[in-house]
Known about the structure:
The protein is α/β, with parallel strands linked by helices. It has helices at 11-20, 37-47, 63-73, 88-97, 109-156, 162-171, 201-214, 241-259, 279-291, 329-338, 344-354, 362-382, 387-392, 406-446, 454-461, 465-476, 480-498, 503-509, 515-526, 530-535, and strands at 2-7, 28-34, 51-55, 78-83, 101-104, 180-189, 220-226, 229-236, 264-269, 301-302. Helix 2 packs parallel to helix 3.
Amino acid sequence: xxxxxxxxxxxxxxETLRDTVPWAQCxxxxxGEAGDGEMAxxxxxxxxxxxxxxxxxxxxxxxxxxxxxxxxxxxRAKIVIISGYDDFEYARQAxxxxxxxxxxxxxxxxxxxxxxxxxxxxxxxxxxxxxxxxQFHQEAQEYxxxxxxxxxxxxxxxxxxxQQIYEEAxxxxxxxxxxxxxxxxxxxxxxxxxxxxxxxxxxARVRDALLEHFMKYPEYLxxxxxxxxxxxxxxxxxxxxxxxxxxxxxxxxxxxxxxxPDQSWSLAIGTxxxxxxxxxxxxxxxxxxxxCRYILPRQHILSTETVxxxxxxxxxxxxADLDPAKVNPSIWQGVLQSAAAEEIPSFVDEYLHSVAQALxxxxxCQFLMLSVRxxxxxxxxxxxxxxEEFLSGLDCLDLTGxxxxxxxxxxxxxxxxxxxxxxxxxxxxxxxxxxxxQAVDYIDGHFTDGSLSLNLVAREINISANYLSAxxxxxxxxxxxxxxxxxxxxxxxxxxxxxxxRSGEIAFAVGYxxxxxxxxxxxxxxxxxxxxxxxxxxxxx
Length: 541
């Protein structure tokens, strides 16, 4: 319900309007009254009305001065000025200020009710447009984020030449020109880890704060990498790169320590490079560093300086010199609970590198294989899978009790951990699948509703919008917005083929309030305009 405030120095008029106008029937709550502008202003600041009705001539502060002050503080407020003076100058000043209506006394109840109705329709229309623009902005940002992520995957995967990198970056309005580049990975997990618990309110607060921070600086490009991991591409002048790296590290550390002090977190940072073409090597390095978070759980910042064994050669030591912490079963538990399956080979490489001094001992190699085998079997049993199902997918079990090479050991540990992670992800997909099915069913039944949004669907299935967004894209292979847009475009193509409705009518029929936005999306996703699609007989030109 909208709120209205009345300012009139003639008490009889003020009381008559207050008591005779059916405010509630008109869609308003009577929020307060005052006899002059000076007395009204603090009350208006407290009440925050949507509509202000004020006399123009009052003692201490007149209606025009009050209107100026109110609109300065509440620019969306609608103001109606009433006056007994048929003076063009007053009307002109009222229009210049931004007053909605200028009414002459005597004011009848019916005339005021009519004005109130017109203002209510205008306010509701503006709010709907505001909400639509906010949703449009959110959808545009989501499209941009996932388009940038796909571009980044191509860059670090070595799939693009330098020229292609610049061309694709230009399409995404990204300026990658810089003297120096590096990559950082970071994540936050609930205490104790676990893939099914990766969403938490503290993690959401950290993410939102970091997103806001990194968006302030063109030197950072922040992207979501998977359900609980984020990647930052840092680009800067060579002499400023160290400063931006320190700012990245300090910001991440401060946010985690202040917003999620009980959570487990890590950040890996690669060695800067002066070439865009070297980003795949930089990402390979930072991925290796990232894998070390399980080996060094107390080391939050992972770099070539803090993870010394990455650059150290085998010291020629022996089993007696091995740090017992490097064979702590919690290492395997951490990997099994939260490492992505594709991370397993890197983790195994770095782990074996960290214990290279002991690998000359066959008993130690056998101990490692048995430790990982028992830990993995216990973990998958806890997931509800059978030990037999787990072991049946392995071909490295015959290595037990035999002399093994380092390559044999690497293959065995990789198979054990990878198979367990695969079973874990399968169990997680089953858990997520129920949620996603509910979400998809709701979308399929409501995609033509212009008010459909990620938040609305999340409320319907009773989970966080941020969690739904991450899981939806992970399980469906497309973002929430892309899926909804695909359903709407499919319906739009059908209407263009089978009806003679205009493009604007089809836009409304499939859930878009703005025909221009519909046409923009149709061309972007279908490769042609709605008119061209229809002219081509329902085929893309």
